[in-house]
């Protein structure tokens, strides 16, 4: 590489290589995992999403509030990425197509249920460190926590019935 190469030119574009580590199936992650959903319009937008549900080897379910910009973006451009850094050394990016599977969730009419059909699972674990607990948060609103628990129970039930 030329001595005058910029940092971007020297960067290892490991996802460009056929030997980039990928997983065949989604691993298990703790229920309380916070993930990051990336949608485009065409610029990328990233938002935290609470407690994504592993719904199979290559399927993820999550709930999004009806007025989220990300929900509108994934309807227009269904190709998304979901970054999961979870306890037990889960470090992956699930890429695939998202679709709304329920406009209104039972007992949560202001939330839509979204399914991501995963095409590629980039394995981002590294030998230099492990993900211990992932993204952490402190619950400030017990009613919202109870509502989230209800939505996740519904998604989990749907996932169990699909498998």
Main sheet overview: 7 strands, antiparallel
Helix content: 10-25%
**How does CATH name the architecture?**
Roll
The CATH topology label is: Pnp Oxidase, Chain A
Domain module count = 1
Order of helices and strands: HEEEEHEEEH
The whole-angstrom Rg is 17 Å
Overall pLDDT metric: 90
Instruction: Report, as a whole number of angstroms, the end-to-end distance.
Output: 50 Å
Number of helices: 3
Secondary structure tally: strands:
7
**Uncertain residue ranges:** 5-15
Biased composition (Basic and acidic residues): 10-21
Region (Disordered): 1-21
Organism: Nocardia brasiliensis
Protein name: Pyridoxamine 5'-phosphate oxidase putative domain-containing protein
Notes on the protein architecture:
By secondary structure, the protein is of the alpha+beta class. It has helices at residues 7-10, 69-76, 142-162, and strands at 34-40, 44-50, 53-56, 59-65, 79-86, 90-102, 111-123. β3 and β4 form a beta hairpin. It is globular, with a radius of gyration of 17 Å. This is Pyridoxamine 5'-phosphate oxidase putative domain-containing protein. InterPro entries: Split_barrel_FMN-bd. Residues 1-21 are annotated as: Disordered. It comes from Nocardia brasiliensis.
């Amino acid at each position: 590489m030329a001595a005058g190469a910029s940092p971007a030119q020297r960067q290892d574009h490991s996802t460009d290589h056929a030997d980039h580590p990928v997983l065949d199936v989604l691993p298990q992650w703790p229920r309380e995992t916070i993930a990051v959903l990336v949608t485009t319009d065409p610029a990328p937008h990233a938002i935290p999403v609470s407690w994504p549900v592993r719904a199979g080897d290559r399927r993820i379910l999550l709930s999004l509030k009806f007025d989220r910009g990300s929900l509108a973006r994934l309807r227009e451009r269904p190709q998304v990425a979901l970054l999961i850094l979870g306890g037990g050394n889960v470090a992956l990016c699930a890429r695939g197509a998202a679709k709304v599977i329920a406009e209104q969730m039972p007992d949560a009419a202001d939330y839509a249920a979204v399914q991501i059909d995963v095409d590629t699972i980039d394995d981002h674990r590294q030998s230099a460190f492990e993900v211990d607990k992932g993204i952490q948060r402190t619950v400030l609103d017990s009613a919202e926590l109870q509502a989230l628990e209800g939505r996740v129970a519904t998604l989990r039930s749907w996932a169990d019935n699909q498998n």
